[in-house]
Please model this.
Amino acid sequence: MHPGHDPFTFLGHSRGIDSGDGRGESLVRTGRLIAIGLALALVPWAGSAPAQEGAKQAANGSQSGLRVPRFVSLKSNKVNVRRGPSTDQAIVWVFARAGLPVEIIAEADNWRRVRDSEGADGWVFHSLLSGRRTALISPWAKGQQQAVPLRDGASAGSRPVAQLQSGVLGNVVSCDGKWCELTVDGYSGYIEQEKLWGVYRGEEID
Model:
């Protein structure tokens, strides 16, 4: 690890003005770097109301033929989330961190209704999403100082190789239903699946 480079990322939220379409203030969801094993000052998350249905034709099932719900990740560092499945619908917030996991909960033509780790949902154009699997470390425990060990094997007795704070973002390599192998900026190891947001309990990923 290079000096001055903090490898791990957690979500923070801030208010910003959307300059893309003149619709006014939108919520920006972004990332901030943190270091292994250091005391953290967590950035408070601004609340956001769930997005409303924007069109009667919005589907609650799958039009892509893929399973709904399912987890995907953000492809871009800027992803507009809209109130409904159309560019005519208002932007309710902007994701500002590529790779964040989101859950697809509905589909309508080329639009996907996604939900984030806080439970907020809205509509995103399909091309801004990736099938690459990522996961957040216990984002529900933000503000707590208890770290989650990244272990060198898929067992509670395996040696920790790093201590990860709540909200750290990792790439999912595989899951066996109980443990997932993750990589985080060059670190590789295993974390209990129930401590991740971005994979389902019991889900197997090859």
Summary: Residues 35 and 138 are 17 Å apart (CA to CA). The chain has two domains: 8-40+54-133, 136-205. The chain has no helices and 17 strands.
